[in-house]
Amino acid sequence: MTELHKLFNAQTQEIEVSLIRQFDEKVAGIDNMIRLTLGQPDFPTPQHVKEAGIEAINNNFSFYTGMAGDIRLRKAMANFVKVKYNVSYDPETEILSTVGATEALASSLLGILNPGDKVLIPSPFFSLYEPLVTLGHGKAVFIDTTKNDFILSPKMIESAMEEHGDKVKAIILNYPTNPTGVTWNREEVQAIANTIKKYPNVFAISDEIYSELVYEGSHISLGEYLFDQTIVINGLSKSHAMTGWRLGFTLAPKDITDQIKKVHQNLVTSASSITQYAGIEALKNGMDDAVPMRLEYRKRRDLIYEVMSDLGFKIAKPNGAFYIFARIPDGYIQNSFSFCYDLAQKAKIGFIPGVAFGKAGEGYVRLSYASSMSEIKEAMERLTTYMKENAPEI
C-alpha cells in the first residue's frame, strides 16, 4: 500500500460525504421503502422549458458561453428578481450563472475566505455549508436557533459577533430554510439586515433557493435591504423542477461579483450552454411555473403537519420549502439516526436523521414532502402504526 493517503489536502480529510446521502443510500435497498429523504421536486420540468432545451440541442447551441453566462439569461434573471422580489441587479456586472446553487455557494465562499476566517451559520443548517467553509480554509461557527422555533434573531447575531469578533468574515443565511421550512416576514428580514449593517466588514451569503416556495405571504430578499454586503444565491432547481439541469446564480454588487467570477471561471469555465438556453425560457415565460407546485406542496404540508402533530411530534409549522422538521416525542428512541433506521426497518419509511443538519438537529427528523400525495398518505399510515406499536409504556 502506498503512502499517498498521507498527502491528501488537509481540508478534504476534515469533511465527509453528506449524512443525508449516506442515510438515503443505507435505506434505499429496503423493499417497499417510501423515501421521504431527498429535497428534490417530484414534478417534471415544465414542458416549455424542456422544449427550449431540445431546441438548443437541435440548433447546435453547444459551445462555451461567456464566463458569467449568456447575457440573455442574466437579463432574464435580473427581470425575474426585480418583478418578484423588488431588487435590482445589473445583468452585465452583478449576476453570474453557475452550475447549480451549490457551485454558486462554493465559488462565493472560496472568493471571500482567508485561512482562519470564521463563518456564522444558524443551526440546524443544510449540510453543505460546513464542508464548503472548511474547503475554503475557514471555520464554521454555529448559532443554535432551536429555542426560538428556528427563527434567527438579531440578538443571536450580535451575541455571536461579540464572542468571535473581527475574525467573522461572513454569515450564511438560508430562508425558506432547509431543513425546517421556516422563513422570515418583511419585518424579520429588515431586522436581520439592520443588524448585519452594524458590521460592514461581514458578508451576508443569502441562500434563497426556495424563494418561490413560500405558502403564506411572499418571499423578501435580503438584497432589498442589505444590497452592498449581500451575495444572494438562487437557481432553478426548486422553482422550475430543474435539479438535474444544474443552473444557479449569484447576485451581488460588481466588486464582489468580479471576485466570485474568478473562482467560477477556474472551477467550471461556464454553466452548460444547453441548460442556460432552457433557463432563459424558464425565467422569461415561466415566471409562475412554481405556482401549481406550491399549491400541491401546501396540501401535502398540511396533511403531514396534522398527522404528525397528533402523534406527538413537535413541529414549527413550515411556511416554505418542502420539509417538515419534527421533534421526536418523549419515550421513543431519541437518537435521531437510530430512530430513523428503526423506522425504516420496521415501517419502511425513509426520514433523514436531524443530526445530519448539525448538533442542534439531534432529536429531530426531517422528511421531504416532494413526493406524491399517495406516497405521503401511505407513509403517514405507516408512521401512525409504528408510533402506536412502539409507544412507551405508561
Describe this structure in words.
With 394 residues, this protein is of the alpha/beta class. It folds into 2 domains: 4-44 and 290-387, Aspartate Aminotransferase, domain 1, CATH 3.90.1150; 47-285, Type I PLP-dependent aspartate aminotransferase-like (Major domain) (Aspartate Aminotransferase, domain 2), CATH 3.40.640.10. 41% of the residues lie in helices and 14% in strands. It is built from 13 helices and 13 strands. It has helices at 10-14, 19-28, 47-58, 71-85, 100-112, 129-135, 154-164, 186-197, 254-268, 273-285, 290-310, 336-347, 373-389; strands at residues 34-35, 95-98, 118-123, 139-144, 168-174, 203-207, 230-235, 248-251, 314-315, 323-327, 349-350, 352-353, 364-368. The strands form 3 sheets. The protein has a 7-stranded mixed beta sheet with strand order 2-8-7-6-5-3-4, with helices on both faces. A 4-stranded antiparallel beta sheet has the order 9-10-13-12. A two-stranded parallel ribbon has the order 1-11. α3 packs antiparallel against α10. The longest helix is centred in the last third of the chain and has 21 residues, at 290-310. Residues 32-383 form the Aminotransferase class I/classII large domain. This is Aminotransferase. Keywords: Aminotransferase, Pyridoxal phosphate, Transferase. GO terms for molecular function: pyridoxal phosphate binding; transaminase activity.
Mean pLDDT: 96
Architecture of the largest domain, CATH level 2?
3-Layer(aba) Sandwich
Count of the domains: 2
CATH homologous superfamily annotation of the largest domain: Type I PLP-dependent aspartate aminotransferase-like (Major domain)
The DSSP helix count reads 13
- Alpha-beta classification: alpha/beta
- Beta-strand content estimate: 5-15%
Under CATH at level 1, the class of the largest domain stands as Alpha Beta
Largest sheet: 7 strands, mixed
Q: Quick one: how many beta strands?
A: 13
Named CATH topology of the largest domain: Aspartate Aminotransferase, domain 2
Low-confidence stretches are none
Gap between N and C termini: 57 Å
Protein name: Aminotransferase
Domain Aminotransferase class I/classII large: 32-383
Keywords: Aminotransferase, Pyridoxal phosphate, Transferase
GO molecular function: pyridoxal phosphate binding; transaminase activity
